[in-house]
Amino acid sequence: MSDTYLEFNNLTLGYQGHAAVHHLSGLVERGSLTAVVGANGSGKSTLMKGVAGILKPISGDCTASFKRLAYLPQQSEIDRTFPARVIDLVSLGFWQERGLLGRITREDRIKLAGCLEAVGLSGFDKRPLDSLSGGQMQRALFARSMLQNADLILLDEPFNAVDERTIRDLLVLIKQWAAENRTILCVLHDHALVRAHFPQTLLIARQLVAWGSTPDVMTSDNLLRARSFQEAWDETAGWCEGQQVAKDRIDSGLPGQAADRQRTAVHV
Ligand SMILES: Nc1ncnc2c1ncn2[C@@H]1O[C@H](COP(=O)(O)OP(=O)(O)OP(=O)(O)O)[C@@H](O)[C@H]1O
User: Fold this and answer.
1) Which of 38, 131, 140, 217 could be cross-linked to 201 through a Cys-Cys bond (beta carbons 3.0 to 4.6 Å apart)?
2) What is the DSSP secondary structure assignment for residue 104, as one 8-state letter?
3) What are phi and psi of 52, to 5 degrees?
């Protein structure tokens, strides 16, 4: 039986006074598997960081009832030059249970080996991170997420630069997590993948465009609306220009920058 698990309440998130996600409200149900979709720069990663608590809301809030969180950021945000091995990265999955300096037990090692095997990385424990391919690195990050035993899992573009076989393998894990009643939000660009594997979709373009069952959300109308919102958005406006101004631009057919010269954004 599903119930409310995460709640966005008029949530606005951003950086240095500029909002990147505006006035998001809605509920995520426990055990749901949701794709987060939108164009480049539409605020998907920002939303993930907001849910993970890395980014504090400018206004509104995000309340959650999770016990353990696993957050897998975009690969581009992970420093692989750090002199660490696969085993070091994956063992970080224990830290919520053991603390950062806690000893890893024999049982932990067996568990860790099991996770590496599940992601197809048996025998990779001692490999330095900078020697891994993109797909192997992603598998290692999934192994870490498995160890975390999280009830809320945030995946930011987990299939970026990953081959089809790895995608298939990782999708099996994601679906297994969902079957275990874990709640999953996954940022994706591949619409075919979203339609085939993700029952729920949240479509954003700095603001919510549509949210609900994937067939209802991934319509050509909604995708077109998302593109229009995104194109009309003004990167330079103050922190809360508001949905209405972007919508007005679309309605009046004015492109973003031209409209900026004719309008005064609301700077707070
Ligand atoms: N650390 C930051 N400081 C300032 N602005 C940022 C920062 N991170 C993201 N932004 C801006 O916030 C907006 C939303 O970015 P975000 O990374 O959330 O988009 P995205 O939908 O995840 O994009 P992509 O699909 O390209 O990964 C963009 O305009 C981006 O330039």
Assistant:
1) 217
2) P
3) -70, -15
Output the six-digit token pair for 229.
């919102």
For ligand 1, whether the C-beta of 40 sits within 6 Å is yes
Query: Of 198, 205, 199, 174, whose CA–CA distance to 72 is shortest?
Result: 174
Percent of the chain with pLDDT over 90: 57
Q: What is the Rg, in whole angstroms, of the alpha carbon atoms belonging to the chain?
A: 20
Pocket of ligand 1, candidates 12, 13, 15, 71: which has the most ligand atoms within 8 Å of its Cβ, to mutate?
15
H-state helical runs in 149-242: 164-179, 191-197, 214-217, 220-232
**Percent of the chain having pLDDT more than 70?**
82
The length of the chain, given as a count of residues: 268
Torsion of CA 244, 246, 248, 253, to 10 degrees: -170
φ/ψ region of 83 (left if φ > 0, alpha if ψ in -120 to 50, else beta) reads beta
Q: What is the pLDDT of residues 115-162, one digit of tens each?
A: 999 899 999 999 999 899 888 998 999 999 999 889 999 999 999 878
Q: Report CA(14)–ligand 1 centroid distance (Å).
A: 9
Protein residue whose Cα sits closest to atom 5 of ligand 1: 15
Mean pLDDT of the chain: 84
